[in-house]
Amino acid sequence: MIKINSIFIVDDDTITIYGIKKILTSVAICKDIFEFKNGQMAINRIKKMIIEKSELPDLIFLDINMPIMDGWEFLEEFIKLPITKKVNINIVTSSIDQFDMDKAENFSSLTHHTVVYNSKPIRKADIEKITAGISD
Amino acid sequence: MIMNTPIVSNQFLIKQLPIPTAFINKEFKIVYASDKWAEYFGFQNKDYLGKSIYDLLGNTSKKWSNNLLACLDGKFPESELEVYRDDASKESWLEWTNTPWYDEHENIIGAIVQTSDVTDKVKNELRIEKLEFLQKETGEHGKIGNWEYQKSKDRFTCCEMIRRIFEVDDDFEFNIDNSVNFYKTGYSRNTISMAIYSANQKRTPWNEKLQIITAKGNEKWVNVSGKPLYKNGEYVGLIGIVQDITDFVQKEQKTKDNEHLLKTLINNLPLQVYIKDTQSKKLLANKSELQFLGIENESDIIGKDDFDLYDRATAQKFRDEDIEVMISQIPMLNKELTRNSPDGSIVTSLSSKIPLIGENGEVTGLVGISMDISEQKQKQIELKNLISVTSSQNKKLINFAHIVSHNLRSHSANFAMLLDFLANEEDDKERHKIMEMLMDSSQNLMETLHNLNDIVAINTESNIIKKEINFNNNLNAVLKQINAQLNKTKATVISEVSDDVNINVVPEYLKNILTNIITNALKYKKPKVDPIIKLSVTYVQNYTVISIEDNGLGLDLKKYGSKLFGMYKTFHGNSDAKGLGLYITKNQIEAMQGKISATSQVGIGSTFNLYFNDKN
After folding, report:
1. Is B504 helix (H, G, I), strand (E, B) or coil?
2. CA distances from B89 to A54, B81, B84 (A)
3. Under a CB-based contact definition with an 8 Å cutoff, are residues B143 and B244 in contact?
4. Which residue of chain A has the CA closest to B413?
5. CA distances from B458 to B453, B464, B512, B594 (A)
6. B237 near B149, Cβ under 8 Å?
7. Could you give the CA distance from residue B396 to residue B147 in angstroms, rounded to a whole number?
8. Would you say residue B88 has pLDDT above 70?
9. More confident residue, B95 or B495
10. A71 touches chain B (CB under 8 A)
11. Looking at beta carbons, which residues of chain A come within 8 Å of B423?
């Protein structure tokens, strides 16, 4: 089984968090899984990690529609942060709007991090593919 | 010396001759002369006998001398007409008749010189000659012919021009009857017949413009005038002239036709057309212009300027434009002008001014064309408003559809995922957990659908019925309903709205709106501060504005302002925030033709301003 040290799940929907966690644990050995109800909480934690020089997440699952700070606002802040490590960011949203897909594509071109767009429901096969990418 | 001195009796006879007569001898000296002769040449009481006629008369012509010499040779020369100037240079026409003078033996002893003054006769002849010339030339150029009818001889005479006008042969003989028959039947023939009759009976002259049909069948216009002639009070005939005025009438008709065409065109244009002189005084105004200015007759506007027709400021503006156009000689085209008309309405017109330039290149005035586009302008505004309403509704609809599909998709995605887990899960405890989640999801979906249904209902309700209700009464009813929540949070609600304030609303909506905003204030209260909610009223142009102020968490409107009233937007981490309340509130207020706005400061509180439309 693939080992992943640190994973962020940023979503205000408890069922989605439950689902992602359940699949993740079935396909990989995850050391730390952090949950955040909105982008603000996640970005605060990352900033703290940078200051403390602790290990940043390898993989981020990111919802778009969230209160306080949504997924896009999170991405905007995130890509500005001084992170040399390549972080795998997976957008997981119920939106199938082309506009949102294009926006994700745009973010991908602006950063060295990987930005991938996934529509809900997220299935085991999707997570397997994502985790496989991490170990490379 | 006088030869062959005649007898004295002869001398007396000669003296008394009624015609100026002089007898001269071969040496041209006067032998006898009649008193008349002396008188005519101014020699009365002077000694002229025995003096040379050349000396006496002075300037005589060579021709006359030859004539006299011929007489002495026994010839009888013809009379001579000559101009004679006396010492005072008075000019006279004299007819000289020189004949030889014989003695009883048939010997020529001199000449008899007779003179008669024909000045009057010559002058008359000249006058007649001139008149004839003038008449002929006038006739030729003006196509004027004359005719005369002599009753005594029952004869009709006319000049050549008459024949040309009537296009008859030289041998055609006019008479009263056949000349009348040339006139076109109807008005022309009746008129000429009556004119001749009246001339006969009442001695009246005539002057008419009539139509004839010539011998060759051509139709012509003629001006005919004539009058009866009387001699010693007795009718003797008629005299008259006929002028061919066909060309003139045709040209006149053509001009009239053109003028009529132009006038019809100008008058029926749906544009205001006018012509002004260099002083900006109106020379012409068409029907539209008169209608626009509320003037009935064109004559009431001719000669007036804009200062007579418009208010001073407008008139000055127009005059400045006029001057600019006339000085620059550059047309002003399609200039839009909006102004207040005296009746208070706003008039927008599109006007052009084109300089009128005379033959010598000088400006003689201007032509103005203007169109009242107030109605189009009004329609344009209405259309713009309609487009804005439509586009905002469309935007709302797209937004709504987007949100609905997004929400339903997120629920269905959860169902799909959970059902997937359930199918593969063997652990009973885990299965139970998944089942519970499915139940929750189902519950959420039902609630979402219910809310969406409410929103659709608000937006599709076509006949919103508003009632005037007392504000505080309704506020109290709402507070009673949420009493438990108020008590739990230790909230204080203060209404600064006086008890007599009524507002025009859909009662259900008002209750919903107040409930939403007040419970929101409770939800987003500061953790350790008791909420205080203050309500007040102000009035702004057609709106009664209820302001609801709280001392809660507040919100960064710079960041979230655009999303505040959106669907499913929550801004605080509270678990019971569903993000639908304000969306519904906004929809209900807008359904009542009102609006909502908010001000907020993080850490201090928020104020929602509800604009209730007093009309509609």
Report:
1. strand
2. 148, 18, 9
3. yes
4. A121
5. 9, 9, 12, 14
6. yes
7. 98
8. no
9. B495
10. no
11. none
Chain B contact for A105, CB < 8 A?
no
Find tokens 């993989």 and name the residue.
A59
Lowest mean pLDDT among B82-96, B132-146, B240-254, B601-615: B82-96
Q: What is the complex's ipTM, to 2 decimals?
A: 0.86
A contacts of B579 (beta carbons < 8 Å): 67
Q: Do B437 and A18 touch (CB under 8 A)?
A: yes
Is the confidence at residue B572, as pLDDT, over 70? no
Written as one letter, the residue type at B518 is I
What pLDDT, in 10s, does the model give residues B42-85?
A: 887 778 888 888 888 877 778 888 888 888 888 887 777 777 77
Kind and range of the H or E run holding B197: helix B187-202
Nearest CA in chain A to B577: A67
Dihedral sign (CA B72, B73, B76, B81): negative
pLDDT tens readout for residues B149-166: 998 888 888 888 899 999
Q: What is the DSSP letter of B513?
A: H
Q: What is the pLDDT of residues B403-448, one digit of tens each?
A: 777 778 888 888 999 998 999 888 999 999 999 989 988 888 887 7
Neighbours of B498 (CB within 10 A): 9
Cα separation, A34 vs A6, whole angstroms? 8
Fold classification of A2-135 is Rossmann fold (3.40.50)
Q: How far apart are CA B158 and CA B178, in angstroms?
A: 14
Mean pLDDT of B190-196: 93
Closest CA to A91 of A133, A112, A120: A120
Contact between chains at B569 and A67 (C-beta distance less than 8 A): yes
A81 touches chain B (CB under 8 A): no
H, E, C per residue of chain A: CEEEEEEEEECCCHHHHHHHHHHHHHHEEEEEEEEECCHHHHHHHHHHHHHHCCCCCCEEEECCCCCCCCHHHHHHHHCCCCCCCCCEEEEEECCCCHHHHHHHHHHHHHCCCEEEEEECCCCHHHHHHHHHHHHC
Q: Which residue has the higher pLDDT, B79 or B191?
A: B191
Report yes or no: B440 at the A interface, CB cutoff 8 Å: yes
CB-based contact B493:B480 (threshold 8 Å): no
Is pTM beyond 0.95? Reply is: no
Residue A47 forms contact with B (CB below 8 Å) = no
* Interface contact flag, A121 B416, Cβ < 8 Å: yes
Amino acid (one-letter) located at B339: R
